[in-house]
TrEMBL record:
Organism of this sequence: Parasponia andersonii
MF terms in GO: dioxygenase activity; L-ascorbic acid binding; metal ion binding
Official protein name in the record: Oxoglutarate/iron-dependent dioxygenase
Keyword NAD: no
Stated family: Belongs to the iron/ascorbate-dependent oxidoreductase family.
Amino acid sequence: MAAKAPQNSQSSNEASFTNNIPVPKTKMFVKSLAESPDLISIPSSYASMTGTPNTENQELSEEPEVKFPTIDFSLLTSGNPDQRSKVVDELAKACEEWGFFMVINHEVPERLMEAVIDGCREFFDLSDEDKLEFEGKHLLDPIRCGTSFNTTQEKVFYWRDYVKTFVHPQFFFPHTPQGFSEIAREYSKRTREVFLGIVEGISESLGLKAHGIYKTLNLESGIQIFMSNLYPPCPQPELAQGLPPHSDHGFLTFLTQNGVDGLQIQHNGKWINVSPIPNSFLVNTGDQLEILSNGKYKSLIHRVVLHRNKSRISLSIANGPSLDTVVTPAPELTVCQRPAYAGIKYKDFLELQQSNNLYGKSVLDRVRI
């Protein structure tokens, strides 16, 4: 049976995911605003002075085709030591030079990937009233639906609706639309298996034992967050933002989308549009990997741009340590180089990011030494 969103009471398990930061009631989801028949320009509350991608300090890359790092997961797990060693080296290069790579041959069925995106679409097609049932009371509630990023702090809102749920170590999910919870549970489980395989490779690439990161970050109880984003058509995409330049709070984020591009990553001072290989995962490094690697692997700065006539749906699976894990640079990586980051409990790091404005590496900068 699909798990129903918490209503007026919390179990002791649910309480571990919450804090005391209130979430305001939203007046309208962006989807409803975008579908207004008389909408010809965006409200001033969505107009950003930095909204136009090509007028920011970093220029958009003019390279017609960028060859992104690609990781063949089947070779990483084939049992052939030579093939595995080669892929581990490729992971090291991707994490150090890009902070981004595509994963192919990952054994998550394409039909499942398509079904979960369809489920996201059906959720966003619910009425505003139905979606508000899952709005949540606090920024770390296990199920939360809303708009923008943090409307308590923002003066300018982002052209984005979202639903975010914690799916590991416990599975929480909205009870509607029918069947969505079951699909999301299977998708989250299969994606987590790929994540753990990639983590072993990254651990080895840093000179650690294969299970070193798994044990250090207590990934058995690690947080996995299912977050789907809707970016509706925008009448003035040059003025609004889907999401601003930012890094992710976790360790690795796995992204899929509905075939409409919009993700841009920052590489060598330029913004690059990302068009994924069919049936692949887009994976980017997060702040916890930068901390653990003592800065050897940097978390990726990325942003989302909008379309005038297209609606984009993306699904991010954020994977991180357990909430109570204090993340510090791995001791093996600080023998010849002093620690560059102070230790911080992952729950505290997560709360800092979720309760402030989203921009750059503002939270990571707080723990730099």
